[in-house]
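Dear support,

We are seeing what looks like truncated structure output for some complexes. This example has two components. We would appreciate it if you could run it in full and send us the complete token output so we can diff it against ours.
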Amino acid sequence: MAQAAAVAKPPAPPRRRRASATPRRLPYLLIAPAALLMLGFIAYPVISVFYYSLQNYNPTKPWRNGYAGFDNFTKIFTDDPAFWDTLTFSAKWVFVEVGLQLLFGLALALIVNQTFVGRALGRAMVFSPWAVSGVLTSAIWVLLYNSQTGITRYLADMGIGSYGTSWLSDTSTVFPAAIVADLWRGVPFFAILILADLQSVSKDLYEAAEVDGASRLKQFWHITLPHLKDAIVLSTLLRAVWEFNNVDLLYTLTGGGPAGETTTLPLYIANTSVDAHNFGYASALTTVAFVILLFCSMVYLRLSKFGGEDK
Amino acid sequence: MSIKEATPVVSETRKSPPPPRPKARQRAWDDVPRWQIYLPLGIYLLFTLIPFYWILLFALRPTGSTSLVPWPMTFDHFEKVWTEREFGTYFQNSVLVGVATLVMTTLVALAGGYALARFNFKIKRAFMLGLLCSQFVPGALLLVPLFEIFAKIQMINSLGSVIIAETVFQLPLSIILISNFIKNVPPSLEEAAWVDGCNRFTAFRIVVLPLLRPGLIAVGSFAFVHSWNHFLFALMFLNNPEKQTIPVGLNTLMGADSVDLGALAAGGIIAAVPVVLVFAFIQKWLITGFSAGAVKG
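Here is the complete output from our reference environment:
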């Protein structure tokens, strides 16, 4: 193929081509499709969310629609306990979920980075929940947690716990139950990213450390961890944003219940806009969520000195 | 086609070829006692595999059975879900959405990524900033304005709306990844092809594209798996049962008053099979692809 193309063309002056091949416009043409799609379907909706946040906008109550100033925001901060409740729960959810996922993901990556018999199969099996959707994860854990034929029944058969326990409808067990379900799917994400980054640790460093008699723990602490730092910072950040925003799992697993116990802020926003049709207020909530997210991300990147001195 | 062919790309630029198979050269770092590998791995595997076994169990044993092995085996649940619960239709729709998203994301991201990797232009920084910022934009929170846009252009109830929405939210990360992959290909290779008389596009196709294979597989499969799995857009934009996708179907099964656990499990298996197959195929490329370009800007 290469030869054919090369032969078909008359030998063109090599360096000239570059200048004549519309280099000025080409990059713009190349980014145009992506830029247009993102302007139309991300930027425009974001701007309209900002716009609606200053409006009373409810399609079911058109007589009240109109400019509302900062009323929506005032209400959020002074007169909406659900906002604070769901925000607190979101923070708790993200913190616990990302922390545990990182911990297990790191451990798992270190294990499957070793050389051992059955590694390929082990990796494939351990990583497989990554590909599974939030809804399917819910379906699986609904089957596991259901009171009649779920895992509790068999535990009860063995004398652990009592029959008819449903972890998802009890306010004291629903949080750990949902956390475990999401861990099942979330750990492989970290394991994959960290394993990928482990591939690029120079073996020489370990050899040198070995010569100096450094223990394995020391090697991990002084070689592996610093190498992984940027990857860890970035993946925890991406994951935290993702965990904050993602509603698939909780929406289908608990529906935010029981008694609003597992409602995250985005879930609350979705309910406000979809069920209550209160678009103006939901937009204001979205704006607040967006600002919080951006602020936390900045602080996190600053604190972790991302891409710091050594770069 | 083999992985061995593809890995040199990475090793060339990163100087550390990931050993795809256990090799003879072992050192103290690898001298971890075996039980320290197998014991935690085994425990974690139980946590990973029991849920999979559980759903398989429910899908294959007759309704009402409490046996812990799927015997006698029955395929009634699958038949029921596939025909009565329309999972056949959902499956088709999901495949269509997944493949279309994969193709669109890859093509658009390839163009954008190439521009970022090989050119300096005025709005480059703004474009990069836009890509990064859009990572923080929660798709779920844009449902209402997105719905209004699609209503305006008459795409509600058309799979096109879901395909566009999935592609758009897949793009930022894909472009960043692909531009990093392209940066790892030395520009001199391309320049050599220009000297031989290829134009930019031909040079790209012949020289760069084959080297991008692991990265493209990672990005493409990401797009496919995400759009296959994602549920909110389909739930919001597609009201017609004939247009819905598998995750929405699963959600409907879960939401029913008395959940038919066998049907739910069978539906879950149907939802899992394509992604698990894709995953099994791309698993190794995923690690290579990521270590080549991903996390490190």
